[in-house]
Design a protein that fits this description.
Distance between the termini: 50 Å
CATH architecture: Orthogonal Bundle
Strand content: under 5%
Shape: globular
Low-confidence stretches: none
Radius of gyration: 19 Å
Structural class: mainly alpha
CATH superfamily: UbiA prenyltransferase
CATH class: Mainly Alpha
Number of helices: 14
Length: about 290
C-alpha cells in the first residue's frame, strides 16, 4: 500500500495536477453564469471532480504516449517514466481510473453530460498525437481546455447554449497561444525527431506573432462574451485585467530570450484564469 501511494504521489507530481487551475476557473465561470449565481453544492462538487479527473486523465495519457519522446528530449528526460520512477503500465492504469471517475461524475450530473463525456475524452486523449501529424496541434490542446466552460454549462443546465461556445472559443485560443509559446523551447528537438509544431515549422518569430494574434482574438471573443451576458462594471474590469495580464506575459518572453517561459506559462496563465473568474463572480454578486 505504501508503494502504491508513493506511485500515486509521483504520478500527481508528474501531471502537475495543481495546474488544473488553468481550465477549472473558466469552468466555474460558466457554472456560475449558467446558475445565475451559486448552483447546488452537489452540482458544484461533481463539476470540480469531473474537471480534475478529466485533466488528470489527459495529462497522464500524454506522459504515457510521449514517454519515448520525452526520454530523448533534454528538457523532459527527467520525467517519471523516462527515469523509471513509474512504469507505463501503472500510468495507463491511472488514466483508466481517472477516465472512469470522469464518466461517473458526468453520470451524477445529468444525462446529456454523460452522453457527451466520451466525446470529451476523445479530444482530451487524442490531442497527444496531433503533434505527430500537424503544426497546428496547439489548437487541439486549446480545444481540450476550451471544452471546460461548455461542459460546465451542460452540467448545470442539462443543455447547451450557443452563447457559452464563445467562451469555449476564447479559452481555446488562449490555451493554443500559450502552447505555441511553450513549444518554442523544443523547436530544435522537434525538428530533429520529426515532430510538428508552429515554432518547428515557421520559426520562433512567426510563432510569437501567431501567439499574439491568438491572444488578441481571445480578447475580442471575451468582449463579445461580455455583451452576450450583459456584463456590468466588474465583468468588464475582468476582461481588461485579462488583457493587461496577457500583455505582461508577452513582455517577459521574446524569441531571443525564453528564460522566463515557466513564469509566463505556469504562473501568469493561472493568474489570468483566476482573475477572470473573480471578476465575473463579483459581477454576478453585484447584480443582486
Amino acid at each position: 500500500m505504501a508503494g502504491i501511494l508513493r506511485k500515486i504521489g509521483t504520478t500527481l507530481e508528474m501531471i502537475k495536477w495543481e495546474h488544473s487551475i488553468f481550465a477549472l476557473p473558466f469552468a466555474l465561470t460558466a457554472m456560475f453564469l449558467a446558475a445565475d449565481g451559486l448552483p447546488g453544492w452537489w452540482t458544484a462538487a461533481w463539476v470540480v471532480v469531473a474537471m480534475v479527473a478529466a485533466r488528470s486523465a489527459a495529462m497522464a495519457f500524454n506522459r504515457w504516449a510521449d514517454a519515448d519522446l520525452d526520454a530523448g528530449n533534454p528538457r523532459t528526460r527527467n520525467r517519471a517514466i523516462p527515469r523509471g520512477l513509474l512504469s507505463r503500465q501503472f500510468v495507463l492504469g491511472f488514466v483508466v481510473v481517472s477516465a472512469a471517475v470522469f464518466l461517473a461524475a458526468a453520470a451524477e450530473l445529468n444525462r446529456l453530460a454523460l452522453e457527451l463525456a466520451p466525446i470529451a475524452l476523445v479530444v482530451l486523449l487524442g490531442y497527444s498525437y496531433l503533434k505527430r501529424v500537424t503544426r497546428w496541434s496547439h489548437l487541439g490542446l486549446g480545444l481540450a481546455l476550451g471544452l471546460a466552460p461548455a461542459a460546465a454549462w451542460v452540467a448545470v443546465r442539462g443543455r447547451l447554449d450557443p452563447r457559452i461556445l464563445v467562451l469555449t472559443a476564447a479559452v481555446t485560443l488562449w490555451a493554443a497561444g500559450f502552447d505555441v509559446l511553450y513549444s518554442c523551447q523544443d523547436c530544435e528537438h522537434d525538428r530533429a525527431v520529426g515532430l510538428h509544431s508552429l515554432p518547428q515549422a515557421s520559426g520562433l518569430t512567426v510563432a510569437f506573432w501567431t501567439a499574439r494574434a491568438m491572444h488578441l482574438a481571445m480578447l475580442g471573443l471575451l468582449v463579445w462574451f461580455g455583451f452576450l451576458f450583459d456584463f456590468r462594471i466588474a465583468g468588464w474590469l475582468g476582461v481588461a485585467a485579462v488583457g493587461l495580464l496577457l500583455a505582461y506575459e508577452h513582455s517577459i518572453v521574446t524569441p531571443r530570450d525564453l528564460r522566463r517561459m515557466n513564469a509566463a506559462f505556469f504562473t501568469m496563465n493561472g493568474v489570468i484564469a483566476m482573475v477572470f473568474l473573480a471578476f465575473v463572480a463579483a459581477d454576478l454578486w453585484m447584480r443582486r
